[in-house]
Amino acid sequence: MTPLVLFSIIVAAPIILIMLARVNAAMLFMSVCVGEVLVQYLGSDAETVITSFSSYGSQFSSSTVKIMLLFLPVVLIMIFMFHSVKKSKLILNILPAIGTGLVIALLVEPLLSPSMQHTLGKETLWQNLIQARALIVGVSALISLFYLWFQHRGSGDGHHKKSKHSD
Fold first, then answer.
1. Which of 69, 88, 72, 91 is nearest to 18 (CA)?
2. Is 99:140 a contact under the CB 8 Å cutoff?
């Protein structure tokens, strides 16, 4: 697989899935962050549990278990928030979706096989992405937080209006 195709798949697939499923991309970004915390703090323990209690455990590599942990919160959010973004607001979801796709790519790359990492590392675009990772994560987090904040503020305006029947 060429590096550019691999790069395109890793970055574009989450963005396309987010837009097709009409899932709140900011919530998905937060679930990716939760998945990374699970990988960091539960990765080795989860691998030990899976290999010791499951007859299929030996088939799972360390990176496979960590990828599953990374995507567990993402899959749950995709299921529970399927079609949660209205079609009229889908265009506003694109910036957090792009940020989420880029962050997913940054987090998945170290979990890939060494040969895939090497293939991806040859790509100049990927090298630029790695160099800008702090900026990408920071801007993506801010965009997601603002998206959630404005979405919440927009839905809460009707709660403070008085009813014309209450005295």
1. 91
2. yes
What pTM value is reported for the model? 0.81
Using one digit for the tens of pLDDT, what is the confidence trace for 87-110?
Answer: 888 888 899 999 999 999 999 999
Supply φ then ψ for residue 55, to 5 degrees: -70, -20
Q: Distance (Å, rounded) from C-alpha 128 to C-alpha 62?
A: 28
Q: How far apart are CA 11 and CA 97, in angstroms?
A: 10
Distance of CA 134 to CAs 6, 79, 84, Å? 22, 29, 29
Handedness of CA 64, 70, 76, 81 (dihedral sign): negative
The ranges assigned to domains in the chain are 3-152
Nearest to 129 by CA among 81, 121, 114, 35: 121
- Report the distance separating Cα 105 and Cα 125, nearest Å: 12
